[in-house]
Amino acid sequence: MATQMLNALNELCQLHHIDEFMLLDRLEQSLARAYEEKLDLAYGARVTIDRMTGNIYVYELVPKGEPDAETGEYTEFDEKDVTPDDTSRIAAIYVKQEIANLVREAEKQQIYEEFSDRVGDVINGVVLQSTPDFTIVKIREGVEAELPHFNLKRFPDERNERPAGEHYAHNQRLKALIIDVRDPNNPEKTIRNERFRPALVVSRSHPELIRRLFELEVPEIYDGIVEINSVAREPGYRSKIAVSSSDPHLDPVGACVGMRGSRVRNVVNELRGERIDVIPWSEDPGVRIANALSPATVTQVLVDEDDNHATVIVPDDQLSLAIGKEGQNARLAARLTGYHIDIKNETLAHDIIETIKAQQADEAGEEEVEVRCAYVSPKGVRCRNLARPGSRYCGVHAQKAGEGEE
What we know:
The chain contains eleven helices and 14 strands. It has helices at residues 2-16, 20-38, 87-115, 207-217, 219-222, 252-257, 262-270, 285-292, 319-323, 328-337, 350-364; strands spanning 45-49, 56-63, 77-81, 122-130, 134-140, 143-148, 173-181, 200-203, 226-234, 238-245, 275-280, 300-304, 309-314, 340-345. The longest helix has 29 residues, at 87-115.
């Protein structure tokens, strides 16, 4: 009976490419823990499996001598044979468990070796199943990935990599970014239910996903002619990317948008309708910030590079557009440029503008500089005309402001 079990064990090891001696060692350790509990052995047990016959022997550890003075534990033991009659039946149960564990560990190790160098790559997959906490995506036969979308208030140590508003159906195809490959040999990075969760972790909300998707759609980016210098994203809502070109004859924005918007439309469709703004990159921080606030029109940008702070002045009717819904446009522009942006309309920034004009006049040695009319209508809209020489108002509003005609 024992010999038959050993032969069957050998066949299973060959089938699953498992080292037979390593399996026997692990089986001995598992059986020792099992018999220690089953036979109620106070000081533990040791199990040996004869490599030739397959016979199993169980020994009870009996302490000898005196316990250690510091730890109070015994360090030397005698062994007493307590082998029961049904060792083969119990061993068969544990053989199945150990083989299943070894196969699972071998698969995780193989996946780790294959994908550990591919973090940051985009993969194609098919949704297998979706739970309230994560979605399982099949990459290929035998390789699965986890797209986590945990409630971070309940599970602060987990991740949420699903954009707002996205939900996945069975057999749905999608692209995702590899953000982590769990190392099966690293006990310090244990997670909940790790045994049942895939080794690959992918994301649909990472800003780098947009960069990779544009690389797939725009050959100029893949070839290195067009570069994505910066990406800012609020997953599921809106993103901004700043692009530049090494070829002065190539428009980087046009290359990314494509003929009639075909290229950017493909990326938007993959991201389930997320809005994407493509803007030109500039080495000048002022120009870069003004571009980042697109589609709003910017009057002037005052940059403090030492503090990474910028004051942006926009026309009165452009203020809400520059800030965006719930501050979204300004928030994305700040992430894209790396500057803290303070947006003011021209009416509120009148004193700032006048100070700047005076400084410019002093530097240029001029007595007067053209300044916009200071008149503000009852609705809060400032006049766009230039002020008359020697006055703060244009010819239309000079009398309304109490200034006489010249």
